[in-house]
Automatic annotation (TrEMBL):
The keyword rRNA-binding does not apply. Residues 39-58 bind DNA. Gene3D superfamilies: Tetracycline Repressor, domain 2. SUPFAM superfamilies: Homeodomain-like (SSF46689), Tetracyclin repressor-like, C-terminal domain (SSF48498). InterPro entries: Homeodomain-like_sf, HTH-type_TetR-like_transc_reg, HTH_TetR, Tet_transcr_reg_TetR-rel_C_sf. Residues 16-76 form the HTH tetR-type domain. The lineage of its organism: Bacteria, Pseudomonadati, Pseudomonadota, Gammaproteobacteria, Nevskiales. The keyword Hydrolase does not apply. It comes from the Bacteria. GO terms for molecular function: DNA-binding transcription factor activity; transcription cis-regulatory region binding. This is TetR/AcrR family transcriptional regulator. PANTHER family: HTH-TYPE TRANSCRIPTIONAL REGULATOR RUTR (PTHR30055), TRANSCRIPTIONAL REGULATORY PROTEIN (PTHR30055:SF151). It comes from Solimonas terrae. Keywords: DNA-binding, Transcription, Transcription regulation.
Length: 220
């Protein structure tokens, strides 16, 4: 009896993936398609895996979004008391890092959660620790960090709103809460080309906030 050749089986999804691969895929999709397009099913389709493969690492979509935010925020370099760069230059670098993250990934403001909050808390603690060691009072160190971070955040969000009008409905409320009546002035500033204007303004703010001299505290 002749043997009937079996049909070639259709390739199925890959059996598994990794946590890092899922997060990187979600970042690409968010950058490309926006937050509204991100679902477990869409990520699984992009990675060519079963939806259940994502459930091994993330409880739900909010859990994945929080991990994405944590990964992006990890790109902010903290202050380092062993760095050859001075405190002013490091604060400026931090502000520009934060600004660049917000301009590249403006949806970040809408996906923060416990994991990303922990990343921010560690960054704040390290930066404040370095400033206090340089002789700055704790309250002033916290104020300096807050001003630099919030200015960079606000400028980044505003820049994203101007370059991507479709994001305005998502970010308008966050932006208005941060800036209030200063929105027109910041909008004018954000319209300037490149990051040179941001660098100059951040530098002026940092120079105004930092004491002219920081005498390192003597260790007991």
């Amino acid at each position: 009896m002749p043997t009937t050749a079996s049909a070639t089986p259709r390739p199925g999804p890959r059996p598994s993936t990794s946590r890092r691969e899922i997060v990187q895929c979600a970042i690409r999709m968010l950058d490309r398609d926006g937050a509204e397009a991100l679902t477990f099913r869409a990520v699984a389709r992009e990675l060519d895996v079963a939806v259940g493969a994502l459930g091994r690492y993330f409880r739900n979509l909010a859990d994945l979004e929080d991990e994405v935010a944590a990964a992006l925020l990890s790109g902010m370099r903290p202050l380092d008391d062993s760095s050859a760069a001075g405190l002013r230059e490091q604060l400026l670098r931090f502000g520009l890092d934060w600004l660049e993250i917000m301009r590249k990934h403006p949806y970040l403001a809408t996906i923060l959660g416990p994991a990303s909050a922990e990343v921010v808390a560690r960054h704040v603690a390290q930066c404040v620790k370095v400033m206090v060691a340089a002789g700055i009072e704790f309250e002033q160190a916290m104020a300096i960090y807050s001003v630099v971070a919030n200015l960079a955040y606000a400028w980044g969000v505003q820049g994203a709103r101007q370059s991507k009008p479709g994001l305005q409905p998502v970010l308008a409320q966050v932006f208005s809460e941060q800036l209030g009546g200063l929105a027109p002035q910041i909008a004018k500033l954000a319209a300037a080309p490149g990051t040179a204007i941001y660098r100059r303004w951040l530098k002026l703010c940092i120079d105004g906030l930092l004491p002219l001299q920081q005498a390192p505290r003597k260790r007991r």
